């Protein structure tokens, strides 16, 4: 039995894909071991969103080869996809597998291992280096790929603790992006939008529900575009009074219908959406979501900047006024939903005045959480060659200011629940200040604690929030 160590870098989509890969390997007789262990095979699912992500990907690959020079080191995913030539020259990488080929990683790996053993048998162990050129043409031109790469989870390893440890499942519903924001390499790494068939998604969800999962989280590279590639151009069903509806009404209809279908699956109690683009938030779409009680009132609405001039340079297709209207609509329909977002500070050309505009806008919106990123130059993007790059020291100061703002807003949102009835989906057991609790999340994704004697794992527990047990965790009444 060969041992395999897995390591993921980057987004939830990458994490989902590596979990599927690990499951297939385990089902085929491979032994999964921690990445820090000495293994026969190391698989790194790489990230390329920034130059720093590229560097981290290389570091993990080099670390694996250093840990066991005789191991097969497999580089998978986005770093390989955008830097195939560099990967082929990297002596630490034995096998490269790009995007839209991850589902075939097992047969690709086994073909590589067979060839490696043949070479060794013919020329002795010193010939192992000769097989490093065997990459099996596993990196394709992603821009030409039109089919969604079907990958599916069928549950989990019962030895890992079972349902009490696994309450929430991330479900990949689409891949690729057509937006081409000026700072982003992802359309080149992931290709164009490719949506997963609804029947395949439902099959996976039903299987996970039978295994005990209660919450489903939609994930993808650009889930707001789900279904746009399903539109049949031949009969004009994407036209309304001559207007092209792709990117607007048709996509909302496909995503909303998927939500409704999953809500009918027995055992699924919560449906949580991943990151959404502002354009998808309309009265019809929001009211449609609100009509499905299982939809969590937690919306990650991508922003990136609170300044219209900066948004233009980013090639984002909305204004701050439009964005704020979408937030108001969500709050009008859902009451007090958790609104979270991403913000990039120090984007090329961002002046002190533009940063001040962004800060005022963030204060006005009043988010539950903000993920604040310092702009990181990514070669191959439009923004990388823009003039007026912001110094790192300035980015650090601006990032620090926004993180302080985020901390205050987030604390105020949590405190707003004290004295109110909340429902928690319990997860892990934890000891805090000498007491045992079950930690879980509300439907708005606020962490909360339930006294251990009142709940087991993977239970929906209702009660009144009495105080903040820690800065981030609400306490339900005992």
From TrEMBL:
Keyword Metal-binding: yes
Keywords, in A-Z order: 4Fe-4S, Cytoplasm, Iron, Iron-sulfur, Metal-binding, S-adenosyl-L-methionine, Transferase, tRNA processing
UniProt xrefs under InterPro entries: Elp3/MiaA/NifB-like_rSAM, Methylthiotransferase, Methylthiotransferase_CS, Methylthiotransferase_N, Methylthiotransferase_N_sf, MiaB-like_bact, rSAM, rSAM_horseshoe
Cofactors demanded by this protein: [4Fe-4S] cluster
Domain of life: Bacteria
GO molecular function: 4 iron, 4 sulfur cluster binding; metal ion binding; tRNA (N(6)-L-threonylcarbamoyladenosine(37)-C(2))-methylthiotransferase activity; tRNA-2-methylthio-N(6)-dimethylallyladenosine(37) synthase activity
Keyword S-adenosyl-L-methionine: yes
Pfam families: Radical_SAM, UPF0004
SUPFAM superfamilies: Radical SAM enzymes
Ranges where the MTTase N-terminal domain occurs: 2-114
Radical SAM core domain span: 163-412
Function of the protein: Catalyzes the methylthiolation of N6-threonylcarbamoyladenosine (t(6)A), leading to the formation of 2-methylthio-N6-threonylcarbamoyladenosine (ms(2)t(6)A) at position 37 in tRNAs that read codons beginning with adenine.
Protein's UniProt name: Threonylcarbamoyladenosine tRNA methylthiotransferase MtaB
